[in-house]
Each structure stands twice: as structure tokens, then as C-alpha cells.
Amino acid sequence: MVAYDGGLAVDFGAPGVYYYNGAAWNRLNPNDPDWLGTYGGKLVADFGAKGLYEYDGASWSRIRNRDADNTGITTVAYDTGLVVDFGASGVYYYDGVTWDRINANDPEWLRTYGDKLVADFGSRGLYEYDGTSWSRIRNDDADNTANTLVPYDAGLAVDFGASDPVAFEPAASFCDAGLKVDSTLQSGQRMGRAKTSGNPRTTTPQWGHCM
What we know:
The chain has no helices and 22 strands. The chain is mainly beta. The protein has two domains: 1-104, no CATH class; 107-211. 27% of the residues are buried.
């Protein structure tokens, strides 16, 4: 289920997609989607082999005749458009008119925070996209169960599984009170990326406990 137009859009499986406005339920589509998402005031549904459709509050339109990948987060709103994971075909951005491939790899998970798009490319690590280029922000594979990546405060909270239960990357100020680099981490402790000199996109960040 996703928040949509002041209410809630819910996939009930075989009965279809329903919209709840806080008082009443209305069926929007009789088909069972693989995934629901939103962007720019539109509801998006992946109907598998039928393709990707968007709903503008009145009617449905097919925007892509291809089945999106159904692992992790398949579609995310980004900038003024939509980012979709099409599996082996890569990651695409839809601006409402045209599709552009922004990465040729198949991500395990997609998420946004601030004005960045984040993709977990498995053993390749965690990358962020600023609308122009990709930068690796962590050379580790995030866990792929439940919500692996979630926006938090001004940054991103990431589940790295048993080795690093929780990691936190503030978007602007990194561990202002200092950084203690440590390979051990207790569950729930906050981590941050150390301040680095020079270009932050070309300088390898250090991770450790925020003191």
C-alpha cells in the first residue's frame, strides 16, 4: 500500500487495487499488481506481463510494455519523475514522457534520500546518484530483507546485516563531535561518515562510531 492523493492505495491481491479516502473504499483496478508506487501525483502499478501503468485519478495509461523487477523496492519517485528497476536491463528514469537508462546494472534495492537516488548493487556496494553521475558510498552489500534502506533525519539508515546492523550517513554534517573509527558495532549504535578534505565524491569516506 502507498499514500496517494490524500488517501491510501492498497493492493488486495485478486480483488484488485483499492483507494481509501479516509471514509470509503473504491476499486481503482480489478487486476493484481506486483508493485505499487507514486510519482508527481500519479499512482503507478506494475501489472507484470501486462506492463507498467499509471493512474491520474481518472484513467489508467500504460507507460512501459515491460515487467519491472520484483525484488526490493522496484519503483521510486525521484526528481520530478520515476525510477524503475527493470532487472537485467538496468535502472531507468521516466520523466513523464521518455525513458532513459541511468545505470546498466541490476540493483537489489532502490531508495531516495534528500535529492539523491541510492542503489544497492550487491557485491559492488552501495551507490548514490545525483542526477548526473554515480558515486560509491559504501563498499559493502546491504542486507536484502525487509526495509534495507530508509531515509532518516537528513541522511540514510542502512541495514548491513550481521556485520553492521545499522549505519547512518548524515547528508551534510558528518560526526561533528568527532569520529572514533572502530570495526565493532553494537546493534542500534549510530554511525556516520567522517569529514574528508577535498572533493567528497572522489575521497573514500571512513565509517565509525559517532562520539
